[in-house]
Every structure is written in C-alpha cells, then in structure tokens.
Design brief:
Helix 4 crosses helix 5. By secondary structure, this protein is α+β, with helices and mostly antiparallel strands. The strands form two sheets. It has a four-stranded antiparallel β-sheet with strand order 1-8-3-6. Strands 2-7-4-5 form a four-stranded antiparallel β-sheet. It has two domains: about 140 residues, Jelly Rolls (Sandwich), CATH 2.60.120; about 45 residues, no CATH class. The chain is globular and about 55 Å long. It comes from Chryseobacterium flavum. This is Crp/Fnr family transcriptional regulator.
Length: about 190
Amino acid sequence: MEEIRNYFEKSVVMSDRDWERFSSKLEQQKFSKKQYLINTGQKENYLSFIEKGSVRFYIPGEEDFTFSFSFAGEFVSAYDSFLTRNPCNYQIQALEDTVLWRISHQDLNIIYDETEIGDRIGRLASEKLYLSNFRRELSLLTQTAEERYLALFSEQPDLLKNIPLKYIASYIGITPQALSRIRRRIS
C-alpha cells in the first residue's frame, strides 16, 4: 500500500491525516491468471492500483482485440464506465496472478469531499490513465508496427515474459504472423 503513497508523493505532499483517510478506504483484492476484473456489460465500480501483476484490456470477439495493458505500479480501471456509471463495452483480464488495491466510486467521492488532497489524487490518477490512452492513439497514427513493438518493450522490458505474443500483436495492430516476421528481422 505504501507504493500508492509513494506514487502520489512524486507529485504532491500528502498529510498523514489525508493518507490515513484515503488508505482506510482501500481494499486489497487478488485475481488469478485469466480471471476477469470486469466483463462486458458490467459497470466499473473501482479505481485500482496494481501492486503486483499485469492486465489486458480487450474487446471480445471472434478475434479478440487487445487495446491496452496495465502493469505493477500503475492505475487500472474501465475508467469511462467508472466516470459515466454506464456499463463497460470491453473486458479487463489478469494476465498473471495480480494484486490490486481498490477504492470504490462511492468511497473516492467521500475522499474528494473529506480531504484536502482528494481532488488532486483523483486528478493525478485520471491524468495518468488519459496520457496512457493518448500515447497509444498517437502511436497507432504515427508509428509503424515495428516502431510500436520496439517502443512497447523499451517502456516495459519484462513484457515478453508475461504476455502471449498474440495479445502483443493485437495491441500493436498486426497479426501474430506479422509480429513473428518483425521479431525475426530485428533479432
């Protein structure tokens, strides 16, 4: 749980009182590999911090479309559903055994109201989620598949150990066969 405080204190100093109030609302939840954090049609009720593990965001179908990953030390949420209180139209799945610290939508609003730092905490978490999504969109518009593949591993060097190549191929917008060709070419 201290990792969360350290994350926030990179940007803002948090009083012990505010931290105690915030941390009292956090609950730990463990997910086993391949377990779903949220399914299509469910409403997201949590903003979560990944203590350990990784997850993928995907649209299920004949060929699942993976559009994002989140890793230890990052926030994870079906944030559009969390904000709008509407059902989610994608799924979030643990790629390995994953430990989350979660705060509910209701409790986060209490923190916003009852602490000096609450709004800032919420803003920092939402900015991080927004920037991650924006970088992904920009990479799809401006980089080749090979550049996206290389960038992914410069940002997350342990990725190959934890994520099946078919999910990585989907994420960078190519087939698994095209990813194999890229991997052969750069090795």
